[in-house]
Amino acid sequence: MNVYDSNRIFDIVKNIGYEKSTDQNNADCYIINTCHIRDKAKEKVFHEVGRVKEIYLNKKKPIMVIAGCVAQAENQEILKREPFIDVVIGPQSYHKINKILSNFQKNKKEDLTEFDTISKFDFLEKTKNSDSKISSFLTIQEGCDKFCHFCVVPYTRGPECSRPFKTIIKEAEELIKNGSKEITLLGQNVNAYSYKDKNNEYRISHLLNELEKFSELKRIRYTTSHPIDMTEDLIECYSSNKKLMPFIHLPIQSGSDKILKLMNRKHTVEDYLKIYSKLIKINPLIKISSDFIVGYPGEGESEFNETINLVKKIKFINSFSFIFSPRPGTKGSTLKETDEELSKERLIELQYHLFQNQINHNKSLEKKQIDVLVENKIIDQEKYFGRNEYFNSVIIDGNKKDIGKIVKVNIENSNQNTLFGKIINKMKAA
């Protein structure tokens, strides 16, 4: 989502004459787009600003903009703490950045952090998404109404808001015309997508099935999803939609019902396992990744072991795992934290099992032929980068003309994060 937002910010500011600089030492405007999910996000921003200040000690300072979720969460505190910063702009207001930059020329510091999602979506509809990548992102909704007790997103991104169905399809069509062969639908709760017009109600399943109709589009993905929004119509897509990839990132956070309740996740482990069973039944090729939080307040040895048992059972192929980080303003931040050293030990153990699953999955693909969408050439190497159906990174011997094509690759070896192989039979151009 942050990558998508950064690209759209550039699409907007280039309309008033800005260009991306390859020389950060001579910029007229410096924009730091931020995420507030991780611990010490605010301090990392100030560290980066300090680095920029050093660069411009003896030269004209650039307009310094802090955008994104840290800006939303901290707003006026940022401006007060660091005079070098000129503008703070939240993730639902970045469509107004051109007006803000113009106002700054009048020596007016700006704080624009109100939630204005509908206005932003209306504006972006008129702003051409110039992404010409083989694999592109497309935002379909923003915000979150779940209020998990560890998460700051509802406070920084606002309530769930879905873009108009026809607008999304129009933007997808533009991306495909520009060369995109794969589109990933984005949202804080992407499978909560719901849009009503005068005659119809659209869900993510309708989007997926409409995108399938574009002949030049070869692959469809989406992220990030929530278990309580994994509806029957969406599950059915994995049987009927031939372009929907059999890889789902479905965060659970913990294998303990006790911890899930304390987190306010609104689902149980049994609910999650039922979804998993339905998906595997409808398409046995489906693989799952997830998110895990270790050391959430209230987690004892038995709760942690329940998480380990779940990881052993499902064998997630690529997951993210972190120690609980209390975020300001959340319910979790008021709870007594688990011992830090104990949490570190548990994270090491959890990651051992997660990484082993990942390694085993990659090993299982060795000596097999897989389909790879070639995305680009690796800089300074005669190698090319692509991904398979399960979003694995694949490094291959290739040719410039392979870019944008799905090719058959024989996987020769692998490590935890990457597959390595050679093209054995080129398929038709995608």
CATH topology of the largest domain: pyruvate-formate lyase- activating enzyme
Rg from Cα: 23 Å
Identify the CATH class of the largest domain: Alpha Beta
CATH homologous superfamily classification of the largest domain: tm_1862 like domain
What is the helix fraction of residues, given as a range? Answer: 25-40%
Beta-strand percentage?
Answer: 15-25%
Overall pLDDT, averaged? 88
Distance between the termini: 26 Å
User: Looking at the structure, what is the overall shape?
Assistant: globular
Whole-number tally of structural domains: 3
Quickly give the structural class. alpha/beta
Count of helices? 13
Number of DSSP E strands: 20
What are the segments in which pLDDT stays under 50 over at least 5 consecutive residues? Answer: none
Main pleated sheet? 5 strands, mixed, barrel
**Sheet with most strands: strand arrangement:** 16-17-18-20-19
CATH architecture descriptor name of the largest domain: Alpha-Beta Horseshoe
Give an overview of the whole structure.
This protein has 13 helices and 20 strands. The protein has 430 residues and is an alpha/beta fold. The protein has three domains: 113 residues, Rossmann fold (3-Layer(aba) Sandwich); 246 residues, pyruvate-formate lyase- activating enzyme (Alpha-Beta Horseshoe), CATH 3.80.30.20; 58 residues, Beta Barrel (OB fold (Dihydrolipoamide Acetyltransferase, E2P)), CATH 2.40.50. Helix 3 links the parallel strand 2 and strand 3.
